[in-house]
Structure to design on (206 residues):
């Protein structure tokens, strides 16, 4: 089963590490318990919308960007290409089963 | 505060209505209590990843597509244009504060 919380956890952890922050720093800024944030990052706990908002703020990343990255990863797992700006009629002749690039 | 569950609720309700399904039908297919699904659609309850998965299946919509729509709506509220395929260097001269289209 494709669990959104796992992708959210991966994205939050990678964003945090990419910015060189520790769990303790982000948990402190977001006023979230360190153990709870750790469980969220490992996909073991659901983040409430309020906590997601606070962690996004603490990471200084728009929440839309986090969810966009989550949707991209879900799409990769679902092996679906979600069209961005290319209308369907331009896609005729393309193989709908093309595998998305894995990161 | 920008709450992801509100956007998720709106997206799930619009998808359901767009397909002409009742709350009862989708709740039944997803094995979710009708009242709980109703609260999720109204943004009053967080949907667990398992419930989100079940509702997406019941709606026959990829979960990535639901989260993509959610991220697009969050971006509209945050007034951020998230680049899809246009590299940053091509965006020189564009106003970063351009308002996204509201749907």
């Amino acid at each position: 089963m494709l669990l959104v919380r796992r992708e959210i956890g991966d994205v939050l952890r990678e964003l945090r590490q990419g910015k060189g922050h520790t769990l303790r720093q982000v948990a402190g800024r977001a006023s979230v318990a360190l153990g709870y944030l750790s469980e969220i990052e490992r996909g073991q706990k659901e983040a409430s919308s309020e906590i997601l908002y606070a962690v996004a703020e603490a990471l200084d990343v728009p929440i839309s960007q986090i969810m966009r990255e989550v949707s991209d990863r879900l799409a990769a797992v679902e092996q679906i290409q979600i069209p961005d700006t290319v209308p369907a009629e331009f896609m005729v002749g393309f193989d709908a089963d093309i595998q998305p690039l894995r990161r």
Observations:
- The interface with chain B takes residues 1-6, 46, 48-50, 52-53, 62-65, 67-68, 70-72, 74-75, 77-78, 80, 82, 84-85 of chain A (CB under 8 Å).
- The mean pLDDT of chain A is 87.
- The domain at 4-91 of chain A is CATH 1.10.260.40 (434 Repressor (Amino-terminal Domain)).
- The radius of gyration of chain A is 16 Å.
